[in-house]
Design goal:
The protein has 5 helices and 8 strands, in the order ββαααβββαβαββ. By secondary structure, the protein is α+β, with helices and mostly antiparallel strands.
Length: about 180
C-alpha cells in the first residue's frame, strides 16, 4: 500500500516508512513488509543499516502524529527492480529555527553507486521546499568519508563541529534554503 507522499529521482522512488511496515520488518515478516511498501526488502531481512534502535521510536511517533510522516524515515527504492536500497530521513519535524537533521544509509550491495547521494538530494530538495524549513543539517563523524562525500555532493558545507554522545566530536554539515544543491 504505497503512500501518496512520494519523491521520484532518476533511479529511485522515495517513500515514507509507515508504522505498519516498520512493525512487519521488526517482526521479521518480510512478505508483509514487502506488501505494505510495494517494494522488496533485502534478504536476510533486517532493518536498514544504523536504524535498528531508531525504528521503534519512529513507529511510535508516526502512530502519535501520522501527519508528520515526511519528517521521519523514508525508504529508497530502485525504480527498475523494486528493491529497497537503503533508508534516509529526518529526526522529526523542523525545530523552532526551521532546521531539520538528515541521515542516510544504504543496504550492503547498494554502496558505491551514487544511490545515497541521489536519494539524499531528492529528500533535501523536498525538505527545503516545505513551509518553515530554513536549513537541512547532517552530523557526520570525522572519519566517515563516504557520508561526508554525500553531504558535499548535495551542496552541504561544514558549518561547525558538535559533540554527540557515543560518537564524540562530529562535523555539522548544512545547506540553507536558497542555496544550490
Amino acid at each position: 500500500m504505497p503512500t501518496a507522499l512520494q519523491i521520484e529521482t532518476r533511479r529511485l522512488r522515495l517513500l515514507p516508512f509507515a508504522a505498519a511496515a516498520i512493525d512487519a520488518l521488526l517482526a521479521g515478516d518480510g512478505e508483509r513488509a514487502d506488501q505494505l511498501t510495494g517494494a522488496r526488502f533485502p534478504r536476510p531481512l533486517g532493518p536498514p543499516p544504523l536504524m535498528e534502535n531508531v525504528l521503534p521510536i519512529v513507529r511510535d511517533q508516526l502512530r502519535l502524529s501520522p501527519e508528520t510522516a515526511g519528517w521521519w524515515t523514508w525508504l529508497a527504492i530502485d525504480r527498475a527492480s523494486g528493491a529497497i536500497t537503503g533508508a534516509l530521513g529526518f529526526g522529526g519535524p523542523p525545530d523552532e529555527e526551521g532546521a531539520v537533521m538528515i541521515g542516510y544509509a544504504t543496504y550492503p550491495g547498494a554502496e558505491h553507486q551514487g544511490l545515497a547521494t541521489e536519494a539524499t538530494e531528492g529528500l533535501v530538495q523536498w525538505a527545503l521546499a516545505q513551509p518553515g524549513v530554513t536549513r537541512v543539517c547532517a552530523s557526520i563523524p570525522q572519519g566517515n568519508m563516504p557520508a561526508q562525500r554525500v553531504a558535499q555532493k548535495v551542496g552541504m558545507q561544514v558549518a561547525g563541529r558538535v559533540w554527540e554522545e557515543e560518537i564524540d566530536d562530529v562535523l555539522l554539515y548544512e545547506i540553507r534554503h536558497g542555496e544550490d544543491g
